[in-house]
Design a protein that fits this description.
The structure is a single chain. This protein has about 325 residues and is of the alpha/beta class. The protein has two domains: about 120 residues, 3-Layer(aba) Sandwich (Rossmann fold), CATH 3.40.50.720; about 170 residues, Rossmann fold. Helices cover about 35% and strands about 15% of the residues. It is built from 14 helices and eleven strands. The chain is elongated. The mean pLDDT is about 95.
Length: about 325
């Protein structure tokens, strides 16, 4: 039985990248696919031709649909999203009993790999070492008194217990490190945020994107960091009180912050985030990029095969 599907995206070029290297052809072979990508600008014009569509495929650039628009997709049964968080668009679909599937676990892999690399280098004191080793005299000074214990027996705190934190915990298992996981909700914590910042040499933020986490990483926590400790943020910029971070890190040149996300993004011109030597910015590259994005397409294609065969889905989003 033929399944009718369409691809929706406000970023068609990004969608084509995710479904490149044969993924678009695989999708086309599995269903009767609408011939081009539906964008927000063309949606109203194309809705009459989409009345038979049962499945929507998307990635970054998925857009919300209004109740009247969904009424004009009466046969829609499922949305397969080749990216991570679905919070911004999923509610209207879930309210109608439409299945939503996300590649959120696949999207966690590159972030976890990125943080693994940073954690291992942080335990070696690499980031502080490279900014201080600027003269021949510093070679002897840093050799005599290296400011990190190394990646053997050291403590690492992962803030949050979601997919990224879970994946990163698995990646850290081969290493002789003590991994402390701090759940996002206070009532589930064995260790408080304060204890995590005091105890761990590396603190990596993976808190979920919730209102109660806005600004939760503040001056009081950063002041508790051990000498030479490292803070990594690949979660959300809003979770960090950046004024507090700048203030503490201005006073504590021994500390290091590795920020892949900020708020705003990018920081405003002239921000001390660009200027402080112990704060290192990267341009939101921890998540899937370039070739890594095709893992996301592979994930939803596997789920689509399960869906077609009536099998249990592995990455379905549940309301609430």
């Amino acid at each position: 039985m033929t399944c009718y599907a369409a691809c929706f995206s406000s970023q068609p070029e990004k969608f084509r990248q995710v479904f490149s290297r044969g993924r678009w052809q695989q999708l086309n072979a599995m269903c009767q696919l609408y011939p081009h990508i539906v964008t927000p600008a063309l949606l109203e014009t194309e809705l009459p031709a989409l009345s038979q569509v049962e499945v929507i495929f998307s990635s970054w650039g998925m857009f919300t649909l209004s109740p009247p628009q969904l009424e004009r997709l009466p046969k829609l049964k499922a949305v397969f999203y080749a990216a991570g968080s679905t919070d911004y668009f999923a509610a209207p679909f879930l309210a109608r009993g439409i299945t939503v599937v996300s590649a959120w676990r696949a999207n966690a892999i590159p972030v976890a790999e990125f943080c693994l690399a940073q954690i291992l280098l942080a335990c070696k004191g690499y980031f502080r070492n490279t900014r201080e080793y600027r003269t021949p005299a510093m070679f002897a000074a840093l050799s005599r008194q290296h400011p990190a214990a190394g990646a053997y027996g050291e403590s690492v705190a992962l803030l949050g217990a979601g997919a990224i934190s879970q994946t990163l915990t698995q990646l850290l298992k081969p290493f002789s490190l003590t991994v402390l996981t701090v759940p996002s909700r206070a009532e589930h914590r064995v260790m408080s945020l304060e204890e995590a910042f005091e105890t761990a040499f590396v603190i990596s933020n993976h808190l979920p994107n919730r209102q109660d986490n806005i600004g939760v990483l503040d001056r009081g926590l950063f002041r508790r960091m051990r000498p030479g400790a490292v803070f990594i943020n690949s979660g959300r910029g809003l979770q960090v009180n950046e004024a507090d971070l700048i203030d503490v890190f201005s006073q504590r040149p021994d500390l290091t912050a590795l920020l892949d996300v900020t708020k705003p993004e990018p920081p405003e011109a002239g921000s001390l985030l660009y200027k402080l030597p112990n704060i290192q910015l990267s341009s939101h590259i921890a998540g899937a990029l370039n070739d890594e994005t095709q893992r996301l397409a592979d994930s939803v294609l596997q789920e689509f095969r399960r869906w077609l065969q009536g099998e249990e889905l592995c990455h379905q989003i549940v309301a609430g």
